[in-house]
Amino acid sequence: MHTYQVLIIGSGFGGQCAAVNLQKAGIDDFRLLERRDFFGGTWCQNTYPGAAVDVPSPLYSLSFASWPWTQMFAEQAELHRYTQHVVDRYQLRDKVELQADVERVEWDDSARQWQVFTRGKGTFRAQFLINASGPLSQPVIPAFEGQQRFAGTTFHSNAWDHRYDYRNKRVAIVGSGASAAQIIPSIAPQVAHLHVFQRTPHWVLPRADRHFGRFQRWLLGLKPAYKLLRWLIYWQFETRVIAFKYSKTALKLVQHQALNHLKRQVPDPVLRQKLTPDYTIGCKRVILSSTLYPALTRANVTLHGRDQGIAALDERGIRTVDGQHIDLDLIVWATGYDATDGVINYPVLGKHGTRLSDVWALYPRAYLGTSLPDFPNLFIVTGPNTGIGHTSALFIIESQMNYILDCIRTLKTQGLRSIEVRKEAESAYTEMIHQQMQRTVWKSGGCHSWYQSKSGHVIAMFPGFSFSYHQLTRRLKPGDHILS
């Protein structure tokens, strides 16, 4: 049995941010639990060809850890190096327990502690539990008839097998979202033939990437210059909420830009029609790419729309709903993650044996997307309705830390043991979130996206400006909580 003041589940940016903020608050008695055998989260796990961030790197970085980025949209290898830089700079390696796969967590009311049961590393106890496992950590592979019969190679984009040589092979990519949009241009020139199975087309805008020269990187090494660039990018991106929520005219202008981008890069009207979405831009995640469309126009690439989708698999490949048979060597599942109903994938038992799965049976919900009634001292990083479609997720994570640290400090100052949000405060907050959501394109844009739970509620996104969320999390509201 290992006992700490704070346990953090996950070692990605959420876990790292929590750890550094605890250190800054003078709390050193914490441990990070990581299910994998390496430290670092998304940008160490996702190593598929073409993997890169889609928010400008100077903004997609932690405010307390600047970095001389080599390009505006950093690629996976550089993001991996940045992650390791944060880990080493703040001496977090000694604070992590690798291969500690959490099986379940239970609140012990008599001891006012969380018990965390892991596969491989035994049981841990802590007064506070911070779940930072991330919303994009549970890969989803849809079920098809005959799936087990396929004799070739298959893997999810989240677990790319670099031992497999895809050059001159017959390859299928199932999915056409953000990961697929990066993989397709990266491997299309090297494969014999690439079949892309697209259920729904996505809106695509040009990617304004650029490499930074030596002088620009030197400037980025200066704190004032770095902060200024972050500030400029932040406010430029923050204006996107106007289109997503407040102005249909602004949304139409952005959609017109996307249509022009499609027209310029795809001269074939039949292919262009297949790639034209029938919903409002922003309803699904907008893809930033200047290379996807040219890749899809290659002679060795075939785009299969919904009417040519997958009917079944067999030993040799895929049989489509319109009767084709496609022989394949490799199938890549670029089919996304369970980012709503599967935000936490292990059983959580709170006070009086309350099960999180029961509380979330209709749809996941949480006060500030972070805490829940009957689950004292539990904080969820990037929980329900904390996703952000227009700016850096790290800004939201750092905002959450204000609230989490304020809760911990308040208990410490008052000599108390537990804090939980009141039911009425959580209900009022959740009602406000879904009322505000009605005005957004994610709710009214005419699509079904991974932003929505099975209930139809938009769970992944926060319906407003990120600075509004920052204001909400700036400090603890004691009246909204039970302290004991």
TrEMBL record:
It comes from the Bacteria. InterPro entries: FAD-bind_Monooxygenase_sf, FAD/NAD-bd_sf. It holds the Pfam family Pyr_redox_3. Coiled coil: none annotated. This is NAD(P)/FAD-dependent oxidoreductase. The lineage of its organism: Bacteria, Pseudomonadati, Pseudomonadota, Gammaproteobacteria, Pseudomonadales.
